[in-house]
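Before surveying the methods themselves, let us examine one representative protein, written as a sequence plus integers encoding its fold.
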Amino acid sequence: MTMDAGKAAAGGMDESARLGGRTGRLSRRSFLAGSAAGFGALGLAGCATTDGLILAEAAKIYGPMPDEKFPIPATDIRKVDPKYYRRTVRYETKEAPGTIIVDPGNFYVYRIEEDGAATRYGANVGRAGFLWSGDAYVGRKSEWATWTPPKEMIQRQPEVAKYARGMPGGLDNPLGARTLHLYQNGAYTLYTIYASSEPDSIGSGITSGCVGLLSQDMIHLYSRTPVKTKVVVLPG
């Protein structure tokens, strides 16, 4: 299966172009704008409601991660609609446990678990004109990856020229703490699932086709996702 118009729009740009930003102050937001375990394992049984996890439980899930190479601060959960908090849900599918399913129309990413369950994460997705769908797989994984802006982005935003040889990993790096690089038939698609530190981006279409999870959610998913994991991206 091949990518649709979103991939075609990308042309020959690399993954950094998928996350390229609008003109203005250099920030993760500008880069982004332009371009379950079982029930017991989550420790949330009995705490979920139809509106999402209660704030006390969400604060635990999205708390600081001081032991990371670059310590991650707590997510401001007041900026996230509770329906996008991580939780375990019922999810009927023929896909095998471990499969990742991206539902861009509803801004969710699912990891399929045993017995008809899934871990569900809130996500940001591609903006209009950059959505794509199809089957892919995780071809490689990166922790605190180096980010390199493409020539097209440097032309639009001269302030990023200083990163022409690569922006080291860190809290301000647009690829974030963890990245899953998506492949098809042995070729890199230019799309990723990555860690976002922008809580108010969850539940919106802002990227050029990539899918972002809150840093704590992405680290949770990344730790349970081996290379070669199947990824299904549903139509938007």
The domain at 5-233 is CATH 2.40.440.10 (L,D-transpeptidase catalytic domain-like). Residues 215-223 form the longest helix (9 residues). The chain has one domain: 5-233. The chain has seven helices and 13 strands.
